[in-house]
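Allow me, if you will, to draw on your knowledge of protein folds for a short while. I am sending you one protein, given as its amino acid sequence and as whole-number tokens for its backbone shapes. Kindly check, if you would, that the fold set down in the tokens agrees with what the sequence suggests. The record follows directly beneath this note:
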Amino acid sequence: MKQSVVYIGIDVAKAYLDVAWAGTFRRVPNERSGHAALVRWIKQSTTPVQLICEASGGYEQALLESLEKSELESYSGPSGACAPVRAGGWHPSQDRQD
């Protein structure tokens, strides 16, 4: 049986993270409190989650560290793209260069 995966997209900026998940959009601060709110939101999912974020000149690093501390795995793909994941893993086909 094939397992479903929920994809969450994050646009990373210096001051905030724009998060898109299943038709819901949230903006959280790109700081510890916003990262904690995002982790709590992700952990509510009963379906495996793959979190895909844009690498933004280093502004994603604190988010990746927060995810790791929260026991959510992370992966930095080729060309600096980052794809933090929980269950489901990362697939090279998701790292496109436009």
The chain has one domain: 6-89.
